[in-house]
Amino acid sequence: MIPLLILGLLKQNPGSYGYELLALMKERHYQYVVNFTKGSFYYNLQQLEEKHYIEKVDQLDNTREKRNYIITELGDKEFDRLMVKYGSKTDYINLSFYAAMLFADEYDSNELAKLIKIQIEQTKKKISLIEQSLTTFDEKNHFKKLLENSRSHHIVNVKWFEELLMDIKK
Q: Residue 12 needs a FRET pair 20 to 30 A away by CA distance; which of 6, 48, 129, 137 works?
């Protein structure tokens, strides 16, 4: 999915350089959509260039050369293909916690309660970060709507975790 993010950002910001694209991904909190690291980002950037989906446009900027990228015609086609691929796909939501819950009856209930409290704490932190991010978007931003949806899911998860905790205490 990282190639879709890179190609989409280059469509929005032609002539951007790699670090600038990575900074945009972080600034826009794309980690809520796709797990990425600096290494995976640059690997995908290199792969897109090797496949001729993007090309370098070398420019001088204050005596320092920057590698600016633009999307190619082939890259536009790949962007469209990826939009269809990911836009028409529905994935299951699966938290690693769900796998642990499969064996909750085999685990010490006090220790399980500790794990659930960790989930509640972490999920509330995610909600807080999302709410902070939401203040930076205007009303018609699609990513804002995605974050609002994510926040709603996390709120539901907190309620579910709290109900699990109450069930364990009974």
A: 129
